[in-house]
Structures
1.
Amino acid sequence: RAKQQGRNNYQLYTSAIGTKVLERLVLENNLYKALDSHEFLLHYQPQINLENGQIVGMEALLRWQSQDLGGLVSPLQFIPLAEETGLISPIGEWVLRTACAQNRAWQLAGLPPLPIAVNLSARQFQNKNLASTIHQILKETGLDSQYLEIEITESIAIQDMNFTIEVLHHLRNQNIQIAMDDFGTGYSSLGALKHLPINKLKIDRVFVRDLVRDSNDAAIIRAIVALGHGLNLKVIAEGVENLEQLQFLKAAKCDAMQGYLFSKPLSAEAATRLYQCQYAGRLTQNSVAFS
Ligand code: C2E
Ligand code: MG
Ligand code: MG
Ligand code: MG
């Protein structure tokens, strides 16, 4: 019995400290090889207009299919590590190029043009060459700049406000769209918001999750929609999982939504099929909610 307990204590120790360090090392070593061995891929999650149920955009979400770790690793696990190691630069460039190329391919296949949203990390945003890198990628892939949307977070924006405003103006001057991701969870002041040349607010899914039961969340969502529209911005809600949430957002005049209710993030092939179905007018999923 004592022996057993001793073993349990040891396990407790390793799981608390040892495995954390080990996991990190394994993750880091593998991350270095991942780009070269083509282990990254993008999934695409459709964004839906709340008035008519049409797809109005796609968000590209990075996935790491790791051979050595035996499966899909979440971006929440490896993006912070990629940031620390600097690997985020080549990875982020790969994401931008792949997303733009995919969007161009959809257009060349005759699908109605939509913007593709790409997440930027803090370190990528601080890179002085960002605007020229993006410009180059748009040229290479042949994608018109109005069909690229960059997603930044409040924490990126407030790090160096003047620099942020300058970079965003640079991107806006190229006619690239800018969305503020995870809105409401960061620390940016409302005063700062009016100086940022952005097009869209994305309401973080923490407010959407309990909105049906929590009147505070409901009030926050109504306030964000009013704020966004007052500043001439589009407002989209993330993490919509049920019809009650969708109906609330529709009534609150939120412009669009993204979430498992309509679709999880999909492989390029599955996203293409969904996009084609919608275009062909054969999409009936959830149509009741929009009629
Ligand atoms: P995000 O940009 O806020 O992306 C939305 C996240 O919510 C995605 O998680 C998506 O799969 C998830 N999601 C969408 N609908 C629902 C829903 O109805 N319910 C729930 N529970 N979750 C939903 P994912 O793909 O794991 O990405 C997590 C975060 O990792 C992203 O949050 C983004 O901050 C970051 N990320 C993803 N791809 C990239 C990338 O290419 N570059 C950078 N820098 N960051 C990325
Ligand atoms: Mg995002
Ligand atoms: Mg988000
Ligand atoms: Mg995020």
2.
Amino acid sequence: ALTRAQGAGGRPPFGAAVNQWILPKEEPYRAAIARHCRLVVSESGMKWDQLRPAPDRWDFGPADELVEFARQHNLGMRGHTLLWYDSLPDWARAISSAAQADREIKLTIDRVVERYGAQVGSWDVVNEPIEDLPQRGMRESVWYRALGPGYVDLAFRAARGAAPKAELVLNEYGLETADEGSRVKREGFRRLVRDLMDRGSPVDAIGLQAHLSGDRPIDREGLQALLREFVEMGLKVTVTELDVNDKMMPGPPELIDALVAARAYEFLDTVFAVVRPTAVLTWGITDRHTWMPRWNARPDKLRNRCLPLDENYVAKPFMSVLRHFCDV
Ligand code: G3I
């Protein structure tokens, strides 16, 4: 069915990650998502630790709830994430043989795509494959140790087999700023993408998570050079987890909100000048419910102001920035 995820007026659809624990409990949360979003993604409901608590036990509950919500409100969906090094159940973290890794990856991808493929237009097939400094290159995850760098291609081929028409995405964070860590990460990511293209790996798009922050400026030249290479390789780009860490931003809420909006504008303007993303999603929609405080609580103990709506679901300048670039 045609969902609202097509975007309008040549602008990409806007969407947000949804917290599966809040969705069933808070009507204003559901109303804000239905009102502002064209598509949604589960913040944690489609991760292995949620879906496969044991090798022979599956828990589709939270993901099913979001799929039903999306269907009721004619929303498109992203699937996050078919393969990641994090949020794995203990039995999966303990995988060591190539045969077992191969089998479990293919089983999970086939089973999850079979259940949700009709609703999900775009999948994060592999999430966060590249290390952060001081490590460099491919992340030494359980999958890398069991299968080598080829695990990425294996996952994409399994996903293409299960979802022939979906947008298959390689999703990463930390590719957009001027610090050395981001420069090194762009290098490692570029090498992986070139290797995947050389193998004919069925990657359709690059997912820029875009977890921005007040203390790390956007590297316009560095990011645009990377984006131009993706475009030359025939790859699309999608913005998957946009939010702005305001931990280091000073001052009264209205100043923080202006700085957050400015950072978001700077990033989106940098990307759109090279390529129109297929979608722009924020990682949550309201400051009332964001992952941010867990790792980036503000020193002044004020609530983080990192998302388009404040804690009372009132739109902030960040939402105006999204309306400028997207079909909101
Ligand atoms: O579901 C269990 C619940 O049953 C249990 O009672 C509770 C007790 O702690 O934990 C719940 O699981 C939590 C899960 O979120 C669902 O709420 C996990 O502990 C917690 O670690 C998990 O955090 C999520 C994190 O990814 C790890 O999966 C965050 O909400 C989520 O915002 C964050 O999102 C990631 C993206 O997937 C990838 N990119 C970075 C982004 C931010 O870290």
